Amino acid sequence: MLKYIRITIVIVCAILICIVGTVYALLRLRHPSSVGVVAGLFGAMHKLVGLKVITRKRPTFTQPAIYIANHQNNYDMLTLAAMVPPKTVSIGKSSLIWVPFFGLVFWATGNIFIQRKKRSSAISTMNRVAEIIRQKQISIWMFPEGTRSRGRGLLPFKTGAFHAAIDAGVPIVPVVCSSLHNKVDLNRWNNGVVICEILDPIDTTGYHRENLKELIDKCHAVMQAKIEALDQEVAILESQTAE
To answer: Which residues of 135-160 are buried (b: 16+ CB within 10 A; e: fewer)?
Structure first.
């Protein structure tokens, strides 16, 4: 019974956020900071599914960057969404525009669409991303795995985010969330703790297309190590709560 009540409440709240967020973003003329505001509203819904989310941000870091985050499942919308900094937009596949309510707010807040199946379009989009960063002095939020991991661990990274960071001359900022796989049971009142953290920026100076893999491997290793550390921290916090 609790599961169906939660699903209903989450759907209703999500639709309301999409409608209000769309109006808000359009009134602001699709200002890039609208993404963070609307994402924060989605992130506030974590309590509806019984999660306690601990967020660790870096408010003192304000320069343009490319933020890369691990992409686990649909619950990222209730956890990582709260981590989106001001003046940051995200990149999503073009088919998102057809998702009822969400597609409209995704467009209205100024996010960038990409046609994933067309390599030429993807390369063109990454070039445009670098140009947008330089011209508008904004940041980009990306999921370098390209798809949800669904319990398979941190998947290999695609190259787009790293090409764009090098071309734009901006750092890469990893964002990690502790493991969510099989964590949420909608029929369970308390689904434990999740920790989301923004890590130190990684300088892209000195990297180019020839040593791109070194940058990718470095970012992957940093994020993998931090996820493991956060999972251990979550286990300790949850064991203390259970005592």
So the answer is: eeebbbbbbbbeebbeeeebbebbbb
